[in-house]
């Protein structure tokens, strides 16, 4: 099973390392034809307006949406969450719009307001997950088929809609592979 990591900007190397720890082969995705061979895709954190611009420049926008609509699972972290959202508060920036969630960018303030927190995530077991939030968004609202998987200080920070998973934090920056494994199980169930 080959997993793609969108490698236009942001923390893609760290996701690849994490996938390696999970025993999974990965490829950096920069070209539409690279979407053919992958079973799932991770969209890393970074800067969502930049990622949106680069998706256009690299002619990846439409092929990616097509592939996702045809069944490819996607895991978006931080800026990747914003890319997955149908609605982004106070912004008309380009997005994939695959999840019925409303994202609020930079919701915790500026870069200096980055923080770590222990999250209770039922689907990962009883041990809390250490989460790193860097200029993070949160999910203001989930609609229709989207479900909330984790909340921090009353704000939604992890959500799933079928094969799409969105985290407001950076799961690739700790040693804990459980959330990547959770995504890989979604991919396996779609293969
Ligand atoms: N760490 C991140 O991915 C930050 C996201 C960034 N603040 C944005 O709005 O796109």
TrEMBL record:
The active site is at residues 78, 170, 172. GO terms for biological process: L-glutamine catabolic process; pyridoxal phosphate biosynthetic process; pyridoxine metabolic process. InterPro entries: Class_I_gatase-like (IPR029062), PdxT/SNO (IPR002161), PdxT/SNO_CS (IPR021196). Pathway: Cofactor biosynthesis; pyridoxal 5'-phosphate biosynthesis. Keywords: Glutamine amidotransferase, Hydrolase, Lyase, Pyridoxal phosphate, Transferase. One of its GO terms (molecular function) is pyridoxal 5'-phosphate synthase (glutamine hydrolysing) activity. Its EC number is 4.3.3.6, 3.5.1.2. PROSITE patterns: GATASE_COBBQ, GATASE_TYPE_1, PDXT_SNO_1, PDXT_SNO_2. In the presence of PdxS, forms a dodecamer of heterodimers. Only shows activity in the heterodimer. Catalyzes the hydrolysis of glutamine to glutamate and ammonia as part of the biosynthesis of pyridoxal 5'-phosphate. The resulting ammonia molecule is channeled to the active site of PdxS. NCBIfam families: PLP_synth_Pdx2 (TIGR03800). Belongs to the glutaminase PdxT/SNO family. This is Pyridoxal 5'-phosphate synthase subunit PdxT. It comes from Desulfofarcimen acetoxidans (strain ATCC 49208 / DSM 771 / KCTC 5769 / VKM B-1644 / 5575).
